[in-house]
Design goal:
48% helix, single chain, Rossmann fold, 15 strands, alpha/beta, elongated
């Protein structure tokens, strides 16, 4: 491959090269290069949570592709306190505000704690996607003393830490208080305590349970005055210093972060370098996934779109495409986007196997590389059977109740997609389509831009379909109408398929119209004309 194309030509390959060059300049060992992402355990994990993990793992894969030993660390923030009861969860959790999520009972009664349950959901999604990780629990690491050295250094230099925080964000809080939250040994809360003295010879931090405002709500402290032993995990560092401790203790070399925590990352970078004397990791900032209203998708806002929801209607590879395709810029997202990414993955596969020609060398390399990362660098040896998602859902919609799968397979054989036997991947796709129809009934079509000739031709086709019942006649009339309106038949068929099944190719048009029902096809075509 030409020297101007790095690795597989993707952002992840470039980042891996940049990371290695940086480590060499720092004079650090390249024996093991660790990437990391945090697993928020305070609420239901969403697509953005999954994306954090997928991107960090993609950098690990890129490093391995370049011959380096790399490990992806999935770090659970399960020592954090519960700041707000996420929408959709029981109101009974309100009484646990301020408690460490690892100390809150699981409302679903299937795990040892609330935090363990939420962490499990994200790990389950990573497992389904085939992402390999080393799981670390913040709760266990604090308890086992993994951060003892870093905590002691930060507390001994608490004045300097407070100055850094004030310099970066103007917050005076840690000029007075220590950047550490003891767990109150009386009431059990973590965010209501104020640490005011450090006794290094005794490994103890003195605190008062005063109360604290969290997410606009005042958490009343119990007034208890006590001491916490940091070597026994009786508290945790504040976010404005914890990242730095993690990075040094775990030897993290790369961690991406969201725009919403940019201030915390900037503060931790300085603490890491100026207090802990450890080079901060290489970072890349990404933007948030938004719901269709433009709000950030978050655990507490009630607009959570989970990986498990995606996997009900689409493949893990299509979710990896969403998360790996682009790194910058906020994106609006909803479940209705899944068919688009399923079809786009097919297009990438066509590029990878040379079915679709891309003349620009760099673009071809990047698209092929993106496909390989969607397959976690283990692409199939041959292309799969590509049946447009919309076609499968249409077939599922009109299939006789009780024999949906058999009907779909019969039609796919009739259309020439399969001969005998259904490949495993296609079986999964049929399952996705059946789930879609069970839950939504139909796909919301994306508007198609039609010029005057195309709109006029489609209107004539609509009138023909109202009276023509024979599939061969329907097939041939498309050619006649296209030529009559000075449109090449190939282009007209592409337009029709884009309207009906979302991609420019499909089964023979005549049999498809009869199988789907003329009235359904007419309705879809009429809608496209009206919206153009």
């Amino acid at each position: 491959m030409s020297e101007d194309i790095i690795g597989h030509g993707t952002w992840y390959d470039k980042t891996a090269v940049e990371l290695v060059e940086r480590e060499r300049k720092l004079g650090r060992s390249l024996e093991l290069i660790r990437t990391e992402s945090g697993l928020g355990a305070s609420g239901l994990p969403h697509i953005g949570s999954f994306a954090d993990c997928a991107r960090a793992y993609a950098v690990t894969l890129a490093l391995e592709e370049q011959g380096y030993n790399s490990e992806y660390i999935a770090f659970a923030d399960d020592k954090d306190g519960l700041r707000k009861v996420p929408a959709g969860l029981p109101e009974s959790l309100e009484k646990y505000l301020g408690y460490p999520v690892s100390a809150i009972p699981d409302p679903y009664d299937c795990h040892q704690s609330y935090g363990e349950h939420m962490t499990y959901l994200l790990l389950d999604a990573l497992n389904q996607a085939g992402i390999e990780y080393t799981y670390l629990s913040g709760f266990q690491l604090y308890k086992n003393g993994a951060f003892n050295e870093e905590i002691k250094t930060i507390l001994l230099q608490a004045e300097r830490v407070g100055e850094i925080i004030r310099d970066e964000v103007g917050q005076e809080k840690y000029v007075e208080a220590l950047p550490y939250f003891p767990v109150c040994s009386s009431c059990g809360r973590i965010y209501t305590t104020k640490a005011h003295d450090f006794l290094p010879e005794e490994n103890r931090i003195l605190y008062t349970c005063e109360g604290m405002e969290v997410k606009g709500k005042w958490l009343e402290g119990c007034g208890y005055e006590g001491a916490a032993d940091y070597t026994k995990g009786e508290g945790k560092l504040s976010w404005k210093s914890e990242f730095a401790a993690r990075w040094k203790a775990l030897d993290i070399r790369f961690e991406a972060y969201g725009k919403d925590i940019a201030d915390s990352v900037r503060i931790n970078d300085r603490i890491c370098e100026e207090v802990l004397n450890y080079p901060s990791p290489l970072h890349v900032q990404y933007e948030m996934f938004l719901d269709k209203s433009g709000r950030k998708i978050s655990k507490s806002a009630g607009n959570v779109f989970t990986p498990q929801v995606w996997f009900r209607y689409g493949s893990p590879e299509s979710l990896l495409l969403l998360t790996l395709k682009r790194f910058v810029g906020a994106r609006a997202l909803s479940v209705t986007d899944i068919p688009q990414y399923m079809n786009e993955l097919d297009e990438l596969e066509n590029v990878y196997f040379g079915r679709k020609k891309i003349t620009n060398r760099k673009e071809r390399a990047k698209l092929r590389g993106l496909y390989q990362y969607c397959q976690l660098q283990n692409p199939p040896s041959e292309p799969s059977v590509h049946v447009p998602y919309n076609l499968l859902t249409y077939l599922a919609k009109v299939a006789p109740e009780g024999s949906e799968r058999e009907f779909i397979v019969d039609k796919l054989q009739e259309y020439g997609y399969v001969e005998q036997g259904v490949p495993e991947e296609l079986e999964k796709r049929i399952g996705y389509a059946l789930n879609w129809i069970e839950d939504f009934m139909e796909i919301k079509e994306r508007p198609i831009e039609l010029n005057e000739k195309e709109a006029s031709a489609i209107e004539e086709l609509i009138q023909t379909l109202k009276v023509e019942e024979q599939e061969e006649q329907v097939q041939s009339v498309v050619f006649d109408i296209a030529r009559k309106h000075d449109i090449t038949p190939g282009r007209f068929f592409k337009t029709l398929y884009k309207i009906l099944i979302g991609v420019p190719r499909g089964p023979r048009f005549g049999p498809y119209v009869i199988a789907m029902g003329r009235e359904n096809v007419i309705a879809a075509l009429q809608s496209a004309v009206e919206k153009s």
